[in-house]
Amino acid sequence: MTALTVTTYGVDTDAVVDGLVGEKVASRIAAKDATLWGPEAEPEASIRLGWTDLHETSRPLLAEIEALSAQLRSEGLDRIVLAGMGGSSLAPEVITRTAGVELTVLDTTDPGAVRRALADRLDRTVIVVSSKSGSTVETDSQRRVFAAAFEAAGIDAAGRIVAVTDPGSGLAELAGSGGYRKVFLADPNVGGRYSALTAFGMVPSGLAGADIAALLDEAAAAADRLAGDLPDNPALRLGAALAGGKVDGRDKVAIADAGSGIVGLADWAEQLIAESTGKLGTGILPIASGSVDDPEVAHPAADVLPAIVGAPAQPPAKGVVVAGELGAQFLLWEYATAVAGKLLGINPFDQPDVESAKKAARGLLDATPEPEAPAFTDGVVEVRGSAGLLDGVDSLAGAVDALLGRLAPDGYLAVMAYLDREGPDAGLADVRVPLERRTERPVTFGWGPRFLHSTGQYHKGGPAQGVYLQVTGAPAEDLEIPDRPFTFGQLISAQAAGDAQVLADHDRPVLRLHLTDRTAGIETLRGILR
C-alpha cells in the first residue's frame, strides 16, 4: 500500500502548519468540533462532520451491497446506470474508472446522452437513483424516463431501481411506496461533496464491481495521521498549501496526475474545493488539468499552485505533490479542504449560491418565455451576451475577443458547455489548453448542467475574477420526460439560461453561443477558440 504523503516545493507552509497544530485543528475536526469555523458556521458544521469516520461507519454497507450484487448477477443484470449529480456521481466515477469496471454515469439532461443510455442493454440494466434531497430535477427526470422505458419493454420497473438517499426524503418515500428493489439510506450528517465513502459512493461502485472494502481500508490506514496534531500531518500541509497563499494572491490550484493510477481525481476534487471555499467573495479556484504538461501546471502564473497527484518525473519549482491510495486521498482532500476553510474564514460545508441557478431555471420552465433573440448570428452560431459585452460587435471572432478582453490580470475564463460530454460533442473540451495559451490565464472547462452542482458555486460566490463562455446546442432529437410539462431539451435550455442570468445578475461577463448545428458549430468553435 502506497504511503500517503504531501510534499511541498517552493511553498513555505511551516508557519501556517505550526499555527494549525497549536490550535489542534486536525484533532478537533476528527472529534467533530463544530465550533472550529466560527459561530455563523456552527449550525451547519454540527450536522456535516460525519465524513471523518466513514471508514468505520460505512462498514455495514459492504455486506448489503455484496448481497444485492450477487442477486443481480444471478438474474443476468450486469449493467449499472447511475442517475445522480455532483456529489452523487463524481466519486463513483473516479472509483469505477480507477478500478477499471463499467459504470454508466448519467449526470446530464442532454437529450442525446439520455437516449444513448436508454438504448444500451436495457434488458440487463439496473439504475441507481442517487439524490440526498430526493428532489434533484435532473435525477428525478432520469428516473422517470428509465421507469417508463422498463415498463414499455415489459420489465417490472420497481425491480430494476435502487435508491440511495437521505432518511425522510421524497425519494425514500417514493422508493418505499413503489416497492423499489432496494433503498440505501445514507448518513444525513455528510454533505454531498464529502460523501465519497458513504452509500452515495459505495453503492453504485460496489454494484459495478469495484473493491469498495479496499477503499475503506485505505482510508482507515490514513485516518490516525490525518487526525493528528503534528507538523507532518499531510492534511495540514495540503490545506496550508491550498489556502496559505491567499494573502499573497495565490488563490488557484491546478490539479494534474502523474502516474498515480487514479483516474479523474481532479474532477472530484474540483467540486470539493470550489463548492466548499467559493463564497463570500473569496475561495480557491480548482482547475482540473489534463496533464502535467498543461500551461497552468508546467508554467504556472504567480496566483496558481500546481498540485500533482502521483510521482512526477520532475517536481514543480513551486507546488505540491500528493501520493497515496484512492481511499486515503478522499479523506486527505476532505480534511485539507476543511482546513482551508478555517484559514479562509468561511464555512466549508454550505453552498449558498448553488440554489440561485436552480431557481432561475425553474422560473424559466414555469414561465416558458419566448427565447431571447440573439444579438446576431454568425453561420450556425447564435450569439448573445451580458449587458454591454457585444456593443459594436458583429462577428463570432469579435465576440470572443470582447469576452477575453474583460479578463483581468488575476482572472480566469470558465467554458461552460451544455452539451453531450461523452458523445459527438466531447471534442469541444480540447479548446481549454489552447485558450490558456492564448490568454495566458487559467481556463476551466465544465459540462452543464453537472458543473452547476460543482464549480457553479464558485462562479457566483467566489472572487469576481471570472469571465464566462457558455455553449449550448440544438438537439438532433428531443426526449419527453414522463408526467412532466417539459422535455429534456427544454430542461437543459432553461438550466443554461438560468445560469447565465444569475451570472449576469452578479455582474459577471457572459458570452452565450448557441449552435443551431452542433457538428458544424463545434468545428467552428474549435477553430476560433484556439
From TrEMBL:
InterPro entries: G6P_Isomerase, SIS_dom_sf. It comes from the Bacteria. It holds the Pfam family PGI. Its EC number is 5.3.1.9. GO terms for cellular component: cytosol. Belongs to the GPI family. This is Glucose-6-phosphate isomerase.
